[in-house]
């Protein structure tokens, strides 16, 4: 086998390309190693900073024995971008808390694949943190010592556990790889441009001259050009021209010899009126006789080709014609006999009988000549087609009907069925003939069908539904209409039935009912069906004077499962929970899923005594908590789940089922507020709180219209005791209720949606107050007003435009306002939050992160945020004097702000010791009762703005 020839140009280009590709790949690989080491060092520094803060938090929680907070802190660490696993391990090497779904209270060596027992012992003995990497160096593994047991005076130093964390380097490594690849592709792009330039040069000086010689050689070979080859240029091309001239001379001599010995064999068949076709397979040329041209509608002077004939043959027949000819040429048939139709240029389509045979073969037995005759059989075919069409017309109509057609004799036995009928039941038509139709009908439907078949009235001819049974035993729902058949004498001869399969329609109706009344995931009744059932049971309870109960079950921390393991695992867990819940309820009870992780259990007819009914409902709730406390094995994950349950009895003072559901829901939320995994029965106290909340919700719109709200201001100072700004706080003085607690009316505003107009009112009034103070004269040190922004208000699409409009309306600068957002906003829809913050930043507004240190913001996210200031939460400032961990956290936040070049302000400063500590650690802005409480605008002006202005004039 000859190897394929290669172009000189392609070889040159290939060598250059491979060389450059290897060099650029080596350079890129070296760059990749350097960047990878840099990312490794940066990740190690970040991990140290995070674990130092977390270590302080954990020891604080262990000192207070707040194990729930410890668990939350472990889970919170896992929310960081690159932390793939975090766990708390006691001094015995047993896993106590983990962010991964491992078996707790088991040795860490058996649960954590990358855990090293020797390093663990070294850390607990020496109490020095250790950070190592795994073998592939794509995971940082940290062991930080942790005091875990408290005594009367603090943490016991002999009980040292370990805060264990795994930090994945996959994300930064992926970014580096992508960057290196981009650089490499750019280098290759440059090389591609250079190669194209080289190709252009080679084409001009080499390829084009060679192509010119090639075209000249082709013309000489076809006899179109007899002149000699000439070329001016490189020596090698001139030598090639001389060689081609020698070849031209030899070729002309050979062609002359072939022409002198060439013959054409003519096959005469004009007497029969058939056309003749002579195909030379060696040259590919075909000869068509004058009779053939006449038959096909061609003029005698036309040079007819194989393609001309092919284009006339019917497109559906040609593949068959071509296949039969090829089979004969390959020796698979003795004679090639074909019937085909063709489209005459003028007139109707015609039918041709073709008979052909190979008449010449080469030395190897391969066909080189094929001759065929073509006879017009149009008249014969049309006669046959008319007879066949008349015979099959009604049979085709019968068999092609989409409806099943069943012909019965006078006794109800099958004489004939069509294909559709046989297909509906899954039988062969022959198997159904001679059998009674009743054999194919479901047993309970037979009497009704038998009665209909025996009737001669017109009523029997109406559509009626029956259930048939298929050959495989599957039930088929059909609708059937019959008509009576009479013989030639007018006697009853049987029936013909038209049958339609409506099984899918019936199933669709059932599916619609299932979708309307049942939960798609668990198959449990949904809210609509539960409401119907509860309405019935409430009415029944009123009639029979007995009590029932509604249990509102909400899963605790279910969102963590969805977030960490994905929705498929969460859905599988919900199905497993539904299965378990059905094990603890009675047959007459109803278990429903409202959506998400909310289930409701309806317990009807518990007792005539309300106290006993409450006790029985609590027992069921305890059973639910017990059965859900057992671990779930879902997709290889061991999952533990708890639940909070609210119980509402009925009928008490509820008017509608919605009142019952609201009471159960309120009791459930009280259970969650009291620590989760708790059961609470709806009480009068909850009713009063609901009433109070609803009352506040109703009063809020009027309060806004009547401007019952008042802005209060708490001053902010720097380390030189200069007034630098104020935080805007809201108070509500209701004419009948007096001052309403902010937490109560803020909650009511959030739940009713009034928080948005209320927040807009605060922004507008604050802007107006700032303008008023600017006009009266503010101290030079006074910078801006700080305004808290609610998450719901911030999520509005037009929030940024609205704030800008308020500032413009009040004729103040955007920089006069400091918008405080909470750290919790960063945990949801981060991209949208960051985009909106950047828009506000570009407008000139000052942005602060409020209550910093209470959430779990990623340091990488914080670097991306357009922040100006961090605000240390008062919870850390309050215990600076007595809590070492709080001091460490405050120091870390201050250091972090300094590294990120952000301002930092501490709130809740109440004592001089706190002020001195903060000033010593580098925090130079303060706010708290040490300076003043929040006060109204006029008092704030007199106490601080005017006062500082007078002091400045005196100095």
Description:
The protein is 48% helix and 22% strand. With 955 residues, it is of the alpha+beta class. The relative contact order is 0.04. β15 and β16 form a beta hairpin. The protein has five domains: 164 residues, PAS domain (Beta-Lactamase); 110 residues, Beta-Lactamase (2-Layer Sandwich); 108 residues, PAS domain (Beta-Lactamase, 2-Layer Sandwich); 161 residues, Alpha-Beta Plaits (2-Layer Sandwich), CATH 3.30.70.270; 256 residues, EAL domain (TIM Barrel, Alpha-Beta Barrel), CATH 3.20.20. About 1% of the residues have low confidence. The strands form seven sheets. An eight-stranded mixed barrel has the order 25-26-28-29-30-31-32-33, surrounded by five helices. It is built from 30 helices and 34 strands.
């Amino acid at each position: 086998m000859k190897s394929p020839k290669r172009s000189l140009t392609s070889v040159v280009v290939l060598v250059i390309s491979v060389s450059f590709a290897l060099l650029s790949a080596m350079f890129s690989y070296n760059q990749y190693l350097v960047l990878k080491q840099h990312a490794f060092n940066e990740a190690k520094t970040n991990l140290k900073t995070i674990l130092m803060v977390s270590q302080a938090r954990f020891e604080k929680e262990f000192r207070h024995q707040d194990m729930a907070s410890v668990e939350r802190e472990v889970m919170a660490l896992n929310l960081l971008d690159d932390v793939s696993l975090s766990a708390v391990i006691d001094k015995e090497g047993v896993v106590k808390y983990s962010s991964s779904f491992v078996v707790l209270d088991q040795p860490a060596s058996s649960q954590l694949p990358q855990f090293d027992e020797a390093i663990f012992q070294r850390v607990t003995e020496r109490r020095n943190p250790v950070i190592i990497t795994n073998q592939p160096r794509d995971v940082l593994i940290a062991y930080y010592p942790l005091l875990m047991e408290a005594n009367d005076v603090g943490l016991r130093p002999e009980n040292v556990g370990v805060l264990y964390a795994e930090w994945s380097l996959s994300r930064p490594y992926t970014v580096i790889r992508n960057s290196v690849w981009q650089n490499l592709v750019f280098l290759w792009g440059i090389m591609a441009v250079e190669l194209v330039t080289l190709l252009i040069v080679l084409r001009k000086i080499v390829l084009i001259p060679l192509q010119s010689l090639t075209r000249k050689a082709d013309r000489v070979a076809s006899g179109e050009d007899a002149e000699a080859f000439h070329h001016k240029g490189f020596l090698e091309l001139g030598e090639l021209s001389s060689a081609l001239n020698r070849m031209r001379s030899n070729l002309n001599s050979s062609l002359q010899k072939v022409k002198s010995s060439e013959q054409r064999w003519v096959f005469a068949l004009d007497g029969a009126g058939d056309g003749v076709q002579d195909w030379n397979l060696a040259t590919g040329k075909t000869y068509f006789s004058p009779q053939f041209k006449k038959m096909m509608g061609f003029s005698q002077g036309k040079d007819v080709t194989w393609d001309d004939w092919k284009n006339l043959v019917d497109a559906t027949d040609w593949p068959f014609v071509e296949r039969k000819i090829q089979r004969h040429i390959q020796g698979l048939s003795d004679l090639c006999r074909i019937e085909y139709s063709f489209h005459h240029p003028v007139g109707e389509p015609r039918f041709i009988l073709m008979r052909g045979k190979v008449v010449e073969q080469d030395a190897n037995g391969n066909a080189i000549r094929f001759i065929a005759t073509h006879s017009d059989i149009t008249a014969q075919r049309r006669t046959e087609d008319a007879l066949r069409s008349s015979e099959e017309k009604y049979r085709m109509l019968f068999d092609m009907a989409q409806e099943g057609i069943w012909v019965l004799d006078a006794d109800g036995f099958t004489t004939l069925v069509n294909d559709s009928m046989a297909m509906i039941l899954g039988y062969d038509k022959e198997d159904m003939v001679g059998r009674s139709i009743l054999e194919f009908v479901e047993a309970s439907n037979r009497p009704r069908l038998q009665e209909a078949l025996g009737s001669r009235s017109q009523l029997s001819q109406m559509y009626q539904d029956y259930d048939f049974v298929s050959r495989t035993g599957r039930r088929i729902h059909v609708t059937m209409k019959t008509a009576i058949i009479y013989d030639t004498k007018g006697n009853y001869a049987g029936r013909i039935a038209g049958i339609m399969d409506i099984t899918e329609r019936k199933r669709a109706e059932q599916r619609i009912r299932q979708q309307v009344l049942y939960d798609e995931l668990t198959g449990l009744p949904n809210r609509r069906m539960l409401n119907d059932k509860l309405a019935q049971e409430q009415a029944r309870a009123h009639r029979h004077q007995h009590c029932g109960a509604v249990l509102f079950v909400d899963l605790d921390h279910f969102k963590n499962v969805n977030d960490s393991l994905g929705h498929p695992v969460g859905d599988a867990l919900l199905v497993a929970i539904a299965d378990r819940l059905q094990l603890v309820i009675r047959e007459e009870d109803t278990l429903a899923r409202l959506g998400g992780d909310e289930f409701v259990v309806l317990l009807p007819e518990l007792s005539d005594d309300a106290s006993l009914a409450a006790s029985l409902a609590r027992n069921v709730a305890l059973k639910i908590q017990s059965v859900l406390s057992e671990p779930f094995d879902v997709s290889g994950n061991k999952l533990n789940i708890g639940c909070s349950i609210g119980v509402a009895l009925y009928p008490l003072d509820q008017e509608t089922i919605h009142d019952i559901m609201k009471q159960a829901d309120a009791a459930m939320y009280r259970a969650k507020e009291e620590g989760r995994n708790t059961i609470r029965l709806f009480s009068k106290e909850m009713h009063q709180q609901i009433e109070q909340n609803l009352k506040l919700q109703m009063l809020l719109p009027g309060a806004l219209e009547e401007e019952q709200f008042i802005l209060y201001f708490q001053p902010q100072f720097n380390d030189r005791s200069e007034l630098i700004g104020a935080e805007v706080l809201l108070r509500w003085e209701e004419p009948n209720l007096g001052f309403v607690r902010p937490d109560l009316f803020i909650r009511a505003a959030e739940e009713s949606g009034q928080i948005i107009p209320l927040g807009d009112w605060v922004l507008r009034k604050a802007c107006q107050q700032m303008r008023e103070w600017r006009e009266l004269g503010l101290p030079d040190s006074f910078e801006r007003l700080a305004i808290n922004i609610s998450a719901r208000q911030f999520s509005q699409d037009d929030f940024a435009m609205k704030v800008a409009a308020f500032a413009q309306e009040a004729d103040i600068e955007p920089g006069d306002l400091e918008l405080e957002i909470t750290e919790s906003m960063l945990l949801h829809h981060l991209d949208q939050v960051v985009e909106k913050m950047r828009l506000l930043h570009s407008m000139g507004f000052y942005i602060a992160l409020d209550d910093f240190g209470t959430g779990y913001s990623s340091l990488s996210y914080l670097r991306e945020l357009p922040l100006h200031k961090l605000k240390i939460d008062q919870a850390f400032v309050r215990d600076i004097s007595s809590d070492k961990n709080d001091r460490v956290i405050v120091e870390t936040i201050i250091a972090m702000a300094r590294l990120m070049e952000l301002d930092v302000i501490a709130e809740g400063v109440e004592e001089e010791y706190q002020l001195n500590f903060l000033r010593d650690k580098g925090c130079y802005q303060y706010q708290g009762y040490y300076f003043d409480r929040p006060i109204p605008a006029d008092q704030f002006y007199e106490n601080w703005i005017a006062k500082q202005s007078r002091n400045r004039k005196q100095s």
